[in-house]
């Protein structure tokens, strides 16, 4: 398989995922206090929001790469 086709397929898949999942949240744990038997931990949420434009651009770029990569070379 040609490298442009592989890159194009990966971009198409990432574009579909970006359009299907507009954002995701992950948590980090911070140790606030540690005094003997008492330990206080705080979980902070971090949200990453993906603009739908990112998914559309990735999808279109992937399709262009697939079409250009499948074109026969002019050697």
Task: Describe the fold and architecture.
With 75 residues, this protein is α+β, with helices and mostly antiparallel strands. The protein has one domain. The chain has two helices and two strands, in the order H-E-E-H. A two-stranded antiparallel sheet has the order 1-2. Strand 1 (23-35) and strand 2 (38-49) form a beta hairpin. The longest helix is centred in the C-terminal third of the chain and has 19 residues, at 52-70. The two termini are 18 Å apart. The relative contact order is 0.30.
Quick structural overview:
The protein contains two helices and two strands. With 75 residues, the chain is of the alpha+beta class.
Main attributes?
alpha+beta, 75 residues, two-stranded antiparallel sheet
Q: Mind sketching the topology for me?
A:
Elements lengths: L2 H18 L2 E13 L2 E12 L2 H19 L5
Antiparallel strand pairs: 1-2
Percentage of helical residues?
40-55%
| Average pLDDT reading | 90
Termini separation comes to: 18 Å
Number of strands: 2
Low-pLDDT residue spans = none
Oligomer: single chain
Tally of helical segments: 2
Radius of gyration: 21 Å
Approximate strand percentage: 25-35%
Q: Kindly give the count of domains.
A: 1
Largest sheet: 2 strands, antiparallel
Helix-strand topology string: HEEH
Question: Can you list the strand order of the major beta sheet?
Answer: 1-2
Structural class: alpha+beta
What general form does the structure show?
Answer: elongated
């Amino acid at each position: 398989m040609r490298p442009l086709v592989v890159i194009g397929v990966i971009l198409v898949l990432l574009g579909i995922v970006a359009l299907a999942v507009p954002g995701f949240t992950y948590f980090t744990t911070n140790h606030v206090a540690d005094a003997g038997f008492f330990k206080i931990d705080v979980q902070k949420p971090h949200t990453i929001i993906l603009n739908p434009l990112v998914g559309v651009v990735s999808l279109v770029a992937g399709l262009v790469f697939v079409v250009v990569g499948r074109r026969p070379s002019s050697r």
